[in-house]
Amino acid sequence: MKITDFKLAMLNVPLVTPFKTALRTVERIENIVLIIETDTGHKGHGEAPATAVITGDTHGSIICAIKDYIMPRLIGRPVTDLNEITQIIQGALVNNLSAKAAVEIAIYDLFAQYFNTPLYKILGGGQPQLSTDITISIDYIDKMVADSVQAVEAGYEILKIKVGKDIGLDIKRIKAIYAAVKDRALLRLDANQGWTARQAVDALDILEQAGVKLDLIEQPVKGKDLQGMQYVTKRVRTPVMSDESTFGPREVIQLIQMQAADIINIKLMKTGGLSNAIKIADIAAIYDVECMIGCMLESSISVVAAAHLAVAKSHVITKIDLDGPSLCKINPVESKTCFNGPEITLSDEPGLGIKSVNNLTML
Ligand SMILES: C[C@H](N)C(=O)N[C@H](CCC(=O)O)C(=O)O
Ligand SMILES: [Mg+2]
User: Fold this and answer.
1) Same domain? 68 vs 145
2) Domain Mandelate racemase/muconate lactonizing enzyme C-terminal, which positions (predicted)?
3) Do 151 and 289 have their domain in common?
4) Where do runs of H (alpha helix) occur along the chain?
5) Cβ contacts of residue 200 below 8 Å, gap of 6+?
6) Which residue positions form the known binding site for Mg(2+)?
7) Would residue 234 show up in a list of annotated catalytic residues for this protein?
8) Ligand 2 centroid vs 116 CA: distance in angstroms?
9) Cα-based angle 297, 300, 305 (whole degrees, multiple of 5)
10) What is the pLDDT at residue 262?
């Protein structure tokens, strides 16, 4: 099975409700989709969102990196040369991690299709069911409480509450949501770098003393502020998780050695795809550090790739934040993978099990 050609397209899917974090507000998914073609007629699918505020990647940079730097180096290669291909992808240019992720996802899709096996089995097997949390966007307190109650009534048992804009209001937001759902749902917080280290410690002290129990606090301080992450991790009882602080395996090793977080959030769009995500999961397992598998605003193309990885690495990936498809008004992907509220059930079709993708404009 040799790579012969590729197509790029823009995927456009409206969100159920605007997605609001400390960093940005988004109303629709507009992601680049890559379809890699082969001499056997098999097609591999990949996806890259332009999350410029986190990864620095824009639609223009993703298209240019795939079209001009990565894919020309892969045409003619057999997909079974997986390790050589991932080396070429990672070495084709620096940064551009979302573009690299899209290409790697499509290549792993084809690699598993070559063996006529679902990707999670190629990656090590496991039970193909996961249960994800759902994100509650940052908003007025009443709206966040109403959204939280609605999510619980829809079957979600873990809520990821966005905070990080105003520390005083954030404390009120969390207390109000906790009071409304505490017996029915576990709360995770994501400040998306919006607090200082002192603010984070003070806020978590206040919440802990008020009896608010939290599953974790994600990225309380700026991504580059590892000292700040370490300061918070040392002082609060709530587990601290890194997101914007850790992209690739080297950063994960440094963070673990500094004890600057308790948990690592792995996202394919930060690692540049599956090969580095696998390395991070293996490193974390060596150090006995738990991981979350997370996503950006992604549809079920790249989210399903992340889900296959999480199934295969469930011994270390114990927390699931793969709610991208749940936040969308429609699922543009035709496949047997099932998204039913929090439950994700992977298909046993070869590769990622993608039959076709709707809502695409070819580029
Ligand atoms: C969608 C996911 N639950 C999430 O919250 N991801 C964000 C970043 C998403 C974005 O801005 O596209 C995160 O974990 O920080
Ligand atoms: Mg985050």
Assistant:
1) no
2) 141-239
3) yes
4) 52-55, 59-64, 82-91, 97-114, 119-122, 141-153, 167-181, 197-209, 226-235, 249-258, 268-271, 274-286, 300-312, 324-327
5) 191, 217, 220, 221, 228, 232, 236
6) 190, 218, 243
7) no
8) 35
9) 100
10) 98
Structure tokens at 18: 């605007």
Number of domains in the chain: 2
- Which protein residue has the closest C-alpha to ligand 1 atom 10? 296
Joined together, the tokens standing for residue 227 give 């000292």
Query: Which candidate, 328, 281, 353, 339, places its Cα nearest to that of 131?
Result: 339
CATH number at residue 32: 3.30.390.10
| Predicted ipTM beyond 0.90 | yes
pLDDT in tens, 90-101: 999 999 999 999
Q: What angle do CA 19, 22, 27 make, to 5 degrees?
A: 20
Are 245 and 54 spatial neighbours (Cβ–Cβ below 8 Å)? no
Q: Which residues, by Cβ under 5 Å, contact ligand 2, an ion?
A: 190, 218, 243
Q: Is 20 a catalytic residue?
A: no
Residue 363 included in any domain? no
Q: Which of 89, 1, 5 shows the shortest CA–CA distance to 48?
A: 89
Residue 69, domain extent? 3-116
pTM: 0.98
